[in-house]
Amino acid sequence: MATVQQPIIIDGRPLKEQLARAERRKKYVAFAMVLPLLLFILITFAIPIGSMLFRSVDNPRMITLAPQLTAELSEWDGQDMPPEEVFEAAVKDFKLAAEAGTLGRIATRVNYSMAGARSLIVKSKRKFKNVTEGPYREVMIKADKRWGELDTWKTLKKVSVPYTPVYFLNAIDRDLDGDGNIVKQPSEKRIYVKLFVRTLWIALLVTVLTLILGYPIAYLISTQPPRISNLLIIMVLLPFWTSLLVRTTSWIVLLQTQGVLNDLMVWMGVISDDGRIQMIYNLQGTLIAMTQILLPFMVLPMYSVMKTIPLSELRASQSLGANPFITFFRIFLPRSIPGIGAGGLLVFVVSVGYYITPALVGGAKGQMISNQIAFHMKSSLNWGLAAALGTILLVGVLVLYWLYDKVVGIDKMKLG
After folding, report:
1. For residue 14, what are the β-bridge partners?
2. Which of 80, 187, 280, 301 has CA 20 to 30 A from 250's CA?
3. Parallel, antiparallel, or unpaired for β 174-176 and 182-184?
4. Mean pLDDT throughout 278-301?
5. What CA–CA distance (Å, rounded) separates 258 from 61?
6. Which residues pair with 97 in a beta bridge?
7. Per the omega criterion (within 30 degrees of 0), is the bond before 135 cis?
């Protein structure tokens, strides 16, 4: 007959229970240690991104500033001209908004979807000031004939919903017509798809250029004795000790038509004084400046991986009869690929969201999508469109990261 094993008792409590309490205590201590980092990530990363995602579909302005008009428009079917109640609500809300000083915000929101809406609403404000009774339809149409057009009211209805896909549609050069159908923007407004393509193209070119220039530098540093390699590393890090604005401005001095490079080429007879090359305020200027500024981001990850490759293996390969080229391509290059992946991914992601350099040296043809995001945040105040552009950019980067993981494998990317 088997004996029943009795639980081990220490200080009046089972050992199993004491071990479980000790494990829980360790987990609580570990969580408390990482809690500041979690809060930091939450406050500085998760909440801002979540706010951006929400703002790209949130549309509260008309509901807040013109509640009566919004309520009446929600009941209107949008097929024929709205009833008298809608006109009355519009006049009353516009008068209240004018008294509160918020009519300009209403006009700006409507102007995002209908050109000239701001002047229409602000102009009509003076005509509505002394209106106390109906018929309100005749009063509004008399103030401006555009109030008698069905498209004007369809636009007002479109911008009065609490949540809208319009910002995302605008970000891909599309819009909703009066009947709710997705249509293309007019040709003069189709700029964002082209900017997204240009941004990805510039980021790819900068990544390739930094790889071509940075690989020999990283290889040279990794194969030198410590005394020389440390000096070379300091030279690579030197740009980080200089303001980004100063570095970008220096390229303006170098690349402008009357700049140092053009003067040098004229002096050497490479070009004539009348044939000076325009190397700034265009795509070339953006590529040159961004490549130089982002070069350390490519060199350092590659160097950190190359430094782990034993030089004795290279010497052993050559001692067994392989020439330097075969040694490099069969031994050194394959083992440096994780550094190439890390540096390439880092440079590409940073390039996609670059702002200062394209703004200063890019001109019209060297602008990137980040410049439009900044424009809508600071100048046009269309934060919804800026959030939609930023969200699409974020999703695009995540998709590219996912593709990189599927094709190459993120586990193969190393920093040393």
Report:
1. 9
2. 301
3. antiparallel
4. 89
5. 50
6. none
7. yes
